[in-house]
Amino acid sequence: MVWTGTWVAERLGVELIGDEALPALLGLALRRNPKRAHLLVSRVLGKHVPQRPSVVYGSGLDLGRRVRALLGDEEAARSVVLGYAETATALGHAVADGLGLAPYLHSTRRPVAGVARAGGFEESHSHATSHLLLPADPKLLAGDGPLVLVDDEFSTGNTVLNTVRALHERYPRDRYVVVALVDMRSAADLGRLDAFAAEIGARVDLISGAAGTVRLPEGVLEKGQALVAEHERAYEPGTEPAPGSAAAPRRPAPVRVALDWPEGLPDGGRHGFTPDQRDRLEAALPAMAGRITEALRAVPAAEALRVPATEPLRIPAGEAPQVQAAEALRVPAAEAPQVPAAQAQLAATSEERPGSSVEDRSGRTAGEALAATADGRPAAPTPPPAEPRVLVLGFEELMYAPLRLGTALEDAGHDVRYSTTTRSPVLAVDDPGYAIRTRLVFPAHDNPADGPGERYAYNVAGAGFDAVVLVVDSTADTPALHAPDGLLAQLAAHIPRVVLAVVPSYTPTASPYVPYDATPEVTEATEAPERSSMLPEPLRGPAFSSYAPEEVGWLLQDLSDVELEAPTEEREEAIQSGGAHYAESLPVEYQPSDRYQELFHAALETSAARIARAVGTVTETVLAERERPGHRPVLVSLARAGTPVGVLMRRWAQARHGLELPHYAVSIVRGRGIDANALRWLAAHHDPADVVFVDGWTGKGAITRELADAIKDFEAAEGVTGFDPEIAVLADPGSCVRTYGTREDFLIPSACLNSTVSGLISRTVLRADLVGPNDFHGGKFYRELAGADVSNTFLDAVAARFDEVGAAVDADVKELLAADRTPTWEGWAAVERISEEYGIHDVNLVKPGVGETTRVLLRRVPWKILAKRGAEADLAHVRLLAEQRGVPVEEVDELPYSCVGLIHPQYTRGATGADGKAVVSQ
User: Fold this and answer.
1) Which string of DSSP letters, residue by residue, matches 436-496?
2) pTM for this model (two decimals)
3) pLDDT, tens only, 356-393
C-alpha cells in the first residue's frame, strides 16, 4: 500500500525519518497556513482521518499507563493532566483515563462568560494561536504535584515551552511530564527541553508513542504555498448538486437523539474533569449508545444511497515506499519508546482508504479485494451488512464525549469510525498517497468569539459511510448548523443517514475557593452565589474609560447616557437635608482654568518621583506580605480615586518583576458599603484571599471602616470568606491602615482634577431606579472631555521615575516591614476635635488632607480651609481654588494634615452670597 505522505514527499522533498512505525501512524498534507507548509496527519488521533474509536482511545490509554508507571501511584495521584486544544483534547482525556488517578483540563479557544481565565499561552505555528485555561475550580492548577502536558505531536517544543513558562511563573512545581503520540523534534530542538528544565529548576520527562523527525528542504514553505495555490484552483469538492437544489436527491431531515447525559457532568475537559466524573460517564455510556442505536435504526435512508463527491477512492496495488532512516537522528534501540499496542496493531493492519477497514465488507483483505480486479477497483459492490457502517463525528474541541460514545457503539457490535470537525484549513487532494482525500467546508456554527469563519470535515465525503452520528454541544446547535449550507446539509449530501446528538454545554455557575495551602481540616469549599455567573464582564477601555484595556477592568454598569449631574448647591442642600444621598447624583464636572492646569502640570513635574517612590513602596509591601506560592495579588481599586494608584501599582509590578497583576475598580459608597455584586463577581473569578483593596489616600479613615463593616456583612450574608478589608494606599496621613507608601500628607496630582485624571470616569452612582439588586453600581464615561484628558499623562510621568527611585524603595520597604505599622487613628481624633471646635458637630463635613480638601473645593460647598502653617509647597492649587470660590483659608498650628476642608454646615442655598460663593463663617 502507498504511504499517505508520498504525494507531499515527492513534490516538496519532505522526508519522514525515524521509527519504523511512523509511516503507519502519520501521513502528510499541506496546510493553508503562512507559518508552516506541511501538516503531519495522525492516523490514530481521530481528527482528520476517521479511525476505529478503540484504536484512538487505546493509544491515549497506553500513554497514560506509561506515565503512571513513570510517576508511581503516589505522584500520579498528585498530578494534573493538561491537553491542548483543539487536536489533543480527547487524547489528553484518554491519557488521564490511563493514568487513572488525576484530574484533567484542556486548553480552549472558547472564552466563557463568568469563568475566570487561570492562564494562557501561545501556539506559534497554529492557525489559531491563543489558548485559554478556564478551570471551574481555581485550585486545579495550583497544586505542586506533576503537571502532565499532552499533545498529538511534539514538533519543535515551542508550544510546550510556552505553556510551562506561563504556568510555572504562576503555579511553580518541581516536575513536568510531556506526552505526545509522536516526538518529531529536530536535532537542533532536542536539547532545548533539558536546557529549559535546568533554567526553571524542574524535572521534565518526555513520553511518546514513536520518535523521528521531518527533514525539510530549503524553501519548503514557499514551494508548499505555491503548491497549495495551484491545487486549490483545481480542486472541485464534487459533482453532486448543491444541497437543497432541485437536482439534488431528496435527503431526509436528520434525526435528533436526546442523550441521557448525566446531570452536571461536563461535556469535556475545558473546565476540568475528575476521576469521579470519569466513572459517572463510564456508567452512563451503554444507555447513551443504546439511544443512538435506536436512532440509527429509525432514521430513513435517502432515495439514492450516495452520489460520490469525488471519484471513488482507490487503493492502488503496490508496496509502501521504504522510509529512509538517518543514523544521526535515529533514536537508539535501547532508548526508543515502545509503540503502544493499539498503534502496533494499526501498523500491522494499516488501512489506506479513509474510513475503511483492512478487510472490506465482504471479509476480504484489501490485497484480496484488489486482486479481484485488474484496475484496483472492487469487481462488484457487496451487499451492506445488517448494521450500518457508522461515523461518529465530533465537533472541534468536543472530542472526548463523541469518542467515548464511539467506543460504546463499538462495544455494542457496530462497525464504527470516529473523527471530528476542525478549524484547521488543509488542502485536499484525491490521491492515495495524500493524507487528506476529501474536504467538506461549512460555516462555523457556535458563534465563536473570534468571529465567523470556515470549518472543515476531512475524509468524510466518499468514504463509504452508511450513517453519521454528529455530536455537538448545545452551544453549537444553532441555526447555522441547520442552514442550507451548514454542516448537517453537507453531511446529508454524502451520507444516507444523519443523526444529531446534542450534549448539554457545561458552564460552571460558581467556583469553590479554598486556600491552596490549607490543611484538610479547613478545606471545605464554599460556592459563590449562582447569580454571580449572570453578572457582566468588566467594562474596559477604550469603550469605557481612556485607560488601556489591560490596565483596569471596571466592575460598573455604564450610565453614560443618563443625565445625573446637578448644580453643586442643589446637591449640597439635598444631601444635608436628608432628601438625597451624595451617590444618587453627580456634581457638574469642574473644568480647570488655564492657570489651574498650569499648577497641575507643575505639581506633577515636582512630585512625580515622590509619587513613584510611594507607589513602589506600597506595591513591594503588598508583594512581600500578600504573595504566596501559586498566587499573585489581585488589585481591586476603590473607584475612582484609587484607580490611578491601582494602575500605577500594576505597572510597578510589571516593570520591576514582570508580573501581570489583575486589576479591577469597584464602587464603595459611604453609608451604603461596597458593591456586593462586585464582590460576588470577584469571588467567582478569583480567590478572595488574593484580593488587595487599593485607594489613593486616607483622610479620617471613614472608608477604611466602611469597607471593614461591608466585608463583614457580605461574608455573613453570602457565606463567602477570605476577603481582607485592609486597604493599601499611597498616602496614609491619618494613620488608618498598615499598608501604605508614606504617611506624609502631600500633593498627589491625581487629586487635583476629577474625571480628566481618572480615565474620564465619573464618581460612582447608586440610585434605586438605576441600579437593581443584581446590578453593579453605575458610572459615567465622559468621552466629550477627551481633549482635556491627562489620565495617561499622569501615569506615564510617574512610571518614568520608577528606575530612579528603586534603591530608595528597597530601603523604605525594608524599614517598613520591620516597623510597627499599627494604625493609631490619629487623623480620626483630629477630625473629631475640629468638628467640635468649629461647631460643626458632624465628622462627615470635615475633610482632612490635601486630597479630600481638593474634593471639597471641586465638588461640595466649602465653608473654609484650614491650612497647616508652613505647608506651602503642597497647597498652591488649594489656595487657587479657594480664591476662585471665595473661600477663606485659615492658618493653624498642630494639624496632623497639610490642610483640612470644611463643608458648609447646615447648608441651604440662602447661605451663599449674591455671587453664589460661600459665605464667611460668623
Assistant:
1) ---EEEEE--S--TT---EEEEES-TTS--SEEEEEEEGGG-SHHHHSTTSHHHHHHTT-S
2) 0.53
3) 333 333 333 333 332 333 333 334 444 444 568 999 99
